[in-house]
Write a structure and sequence with these properties.
Mean pLDDT: 87
Number of domains: 1
Distance between the termini: 33 Å
Number of strands: 0
Structural class: mainly alpha
Order of helices and strands: HHHHHHHH
Low-confidence stretches: none
Radius of gyration: 18 Å
Length: 257
């Protein structure tokens, strides 16, 4: 069945409330995407790896778009595949085509600004609570994908070019992600702006710590291996999403009259 861009759902297609579980899962998916991308891009042909990831990504995204409401497993499956595919795009730009991290970071930043501008110009809002049409949802997933690619490039830039190292980069972005939270809680700054700043920062935050765990000790990592890190994080995400799905299903039953 073809999707209409004007198809209305009546309810938002993203989590109804942004809680600590949302941010925790978001960081886990960013870390998992980084480790998974590193494993496949460095052990197989990078172009083939991206192509395979793209096929799975678009299949899962189609599953999400076909849904008429927010569903926990469907939504987080899409986020996981965005994390893998978006990271691979940024990695392949550097590994396969030799584009410096500084250049790719600026390019992805400009792309993100363009997506935001187009989204706001078309819909008049960037709020994730307004994802009630297919067109708005497409803008949302385009934003998320570019944000993942941007975060990957920025995290690699601070770790390798600025020489902060992966753990140092993780600490840097841990400090930076506190700022939008403080901006909202202390001065009630624009909630939509603070959300998207925090959302973008979760990408280099999770990726930096994943790289720190997976990279060899010669590059100041723990040397656990990207494959092992990916497997462990994937297992944690599966369990966390399953628990969240059960909790949200119970809450929905209790809320019904």
């Amino acid at each position: 069945m073809a999707l209409s861009l004007r198809r209305e759902f009546g309810v938002s297609k993203v989590p109804p409330t942004i809680t600590s579980s949302f941010w925790g899962l978001k960081v886990l998916t960013t870390a998992m995407g980084e480790a998974t991308s590193d494993y496949f891009v460095n052990r197989f042909d990078p172009r083939a790896a991206v192509l395979c990831a793209a096929v799975v990504f678009f299949a899962v995204l189609w599953w999400q778009l076909r849904s008429s409401e927010y569903r926990t497993v469907t939504y987080w499956s899409a986020v996981v595949m965005v994390s893998v595919f978006g990271t691979m795009c940024a990695d392949v730009v550097h590994v396969e085509f030799g584009v410096p991290y500084a250049v790719s970071a600026v390019a992805f930043a400009l792309a993100l600004v363009l997506v935001f501008w187009w989204w706001f110009r078309t819909e008049g809002t960037l709020s994730i609570h307004s994802i009630v049409t297919t067109r708005r949802e497409l803008f949302y997933w385009a934003t998320v994908t570019v944000a993942f690619a941007l975060g990957t490039a920025v995290g690699d830039f601070t770790a390798t070019v600025v020489h902060l190292g992966y753990f140092g980069s993780g600490l840097l972005f841990t400090g930076l992600i506190v700022l939008p939270a403080l901006g909202f809680w202390l001065s009630r700054m624009n909630a939509v702006l603070m959300f998207w700043i925090a959302y973008v920062l979760t990408r280099p935050l999770g990726a930096s710590f994943a790289d720190w765990m997976g990279k060899p000790k010669v590059v100041r990592g723990l040397g656990w291996g990207s494959g092992n890190v990916s497997l462990v994080l994937t297992s944690i995400i599966v369990v966390a999403v399953a628990v969240l799905a059960l909790v949200e299903a119970r809450q929905n039953r209790e809320d019904r009259p």
